[in-house]
Amino acid sequence: MNAVQSYEAIGQVMPGTIAGQLFGKPCFKINGKAFICFFREEMVFKLNGPQHRSALSLEGSSLFDPSGKGRPMKEWVQVPFQHRDQWAEYARAALDYVKQ
Q1: How far apart are CA 83 and CA 60, in angstroms?
Q2: How far apart are CA 72 and CA 64, in angstroms?
Q3: Nearest to residue 55, comparing CAs of 22, 30, 77, 33?
Q4: Domains in the chain: how many in total?
Q5: What does the CA dihedral 10, 11, 12, 16 come to, rounded to 10 degrees?
């Protein structure tokens, strides 16, 4: 399964979510709020607390900077495809965070 297929498979099984756009990038939302998106063959998660620190500590992960102008979004962590085995876990944490 490639990166986009992995992203779509994870987003489609999340209960109550719909596909949408975030800054022109594909995303999944719940109650109108984005919690995951796909950017440059990587998955991006809206996280806080221990999950945010954990995701950001993975090799190659970074804060999401969709503009590319050095203005990263502090709650959003972009995680490379090499860590795809952890994408579903972070997606669940992002969903829980946004639903609060």
Answers
A1: 9
A2: 5
A3: 77
A4: 1
A5: 130
Does 10 have pLDDT greater than 90? yes
Domain that residue 81 falls in: 3-99
8 in Cβ contact with 43 (< 8 Å): no
Query: Is there a contact between 76 and 46 (Cβ–Cβ < 8 Å)?
Result: yes
Query: Residue 16 belongs to a domain with what CATH number?
Result: 3.90.1150
Neighbours of 62 (CB within 10 A): 15
Phi, psi of 55 (to 5 degrees): -65, -40
> What's residue 1's pLDDT?
87
